[in-house]
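Task: complex structure prediction.
Instruction: return structure tokens for all chains below.
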Amino acid sequence: MSFPPVEQQLEVIRRGVEKIVPEQELAGKLQKSRDTGVPLRIKYGIDPTGIDLHLGHTVPMRKMRQFQELGHQAVIIIGNYTALVGDPSGRDQTRARLTVEKVEANAEKYLEQLGKVIDLSKAEVHRNGDWFANMNFAEMLELCSKVTVAQLLTRDDFSKRMASETAISLHECLYPVMQAWDSVVIKSDIELGGTEQLYSFMLARDMQRDQKLAEQIGVMSPILVGLDGVRRMGKSLGNYIGIAESPYEMMKKFMQLPDACLRMYFELLTEVPLDEVNEILAGHPKTAKQKLASAIIGEYSSDDEATAAVEQWEREISQKEMPDDIEEISVKLSEPVSLVNLISKELKLTATNSDARRMITQGGVWINERGERHTDPHEMIAVTHGMIIGCGKKKIVKVVTE
RNA sequence: GGGGGAAUACCCGAGUGGUCAAAGGGGCCAGACUGUAAAUCUGGUGGCAAUGCCUUCGCAGGUUCGAAUCCUGCUUCCCCCA
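Output:
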């Protein structure tokens, strides 16, 4: 096995990375691996807590792929046991607990999606239940004895929760211990993750040293902010772009991204060379955003689909043309109905009548042509076949009579 | 085990007997402006057969003409002491 020169590897590794700890050990490890021809073992752990991976997850995943391309060994940990605990990192409250079955189902979905970024045929995949499930209580105690409560409380998220009088459950304290033990078991050289993982990464070093193993280096990416441009991208915050979403869905979301996030997204989510990024950012933000979107969408589907998505957005959203494929809803109506009932009861465009009423009186409803606004909720509408109804910014439907 | 505190709409949070479907902020929704960015402005934000009616302030009772507000019991959470 031959590896690129260390300097060259470092350049790839450093892109979009916020912190490497300890930084000074990295070159040495790379050099040693190059000299001996032994690839480094790169760890990335993910807890199967949901069914969709989003772009936030892909930041360390991409870093993993880069390591793979440099010739190193990817080691994926599916945290089926840690998922039962719930990672307290960066959280201000306890996560909801998951069932074993749920976790297993999620794990399958995750692996499928991981394969879109990482070359799974060359990766080791482990579930940490493989070693935690059979651990007995004595071993468990031994593990816990490695960490003091004071150490745990130095964690930012725990100390914040203490300060704000929010509960910290005992099982959450075990999370970093488990994560660190994973590193011992798989003998990781480098662990990938976000900056909020610092504590666990360092704990892993302590435990590896304790077991007379080489200590891992943490390579930490910045936290990717979500579509709101403020909070981290996350499922529960609803500010994410899922990697399994359709090209057009992704497109629409990308265009809603605040301009200020563009550089970060280019750096963390694409391979576009940094000087080229600077050039793009010097131009109009709208164009830059479209380039960003098509680069990323292209990776998860195809370049053609990405281009099509950009064009579709330009037509339907920017030019406000009628979309090509409008969702059709069939209704059976012989008599005219009031607009409120049409919107909420017949077409189910809103959850409640009150919602429909609001939407109508506020000018969010149009029929057949944008601009053909109908603001009287009581207006009686004689529904005709092919009638097009818009409700708010996002919903347009075509009525099909039976 | 003992003591103290808290629970209000999506979130935070005001409200201590009627004027409370409940201030204010955030978020979100709609509209204007725009590049479906940001900023800004306007309106909205429990439900319904809608100038009215019904349900909601942890849960269950009670006092009262009238309760988010007072009383009793319960549940949950937090803090302190052990």
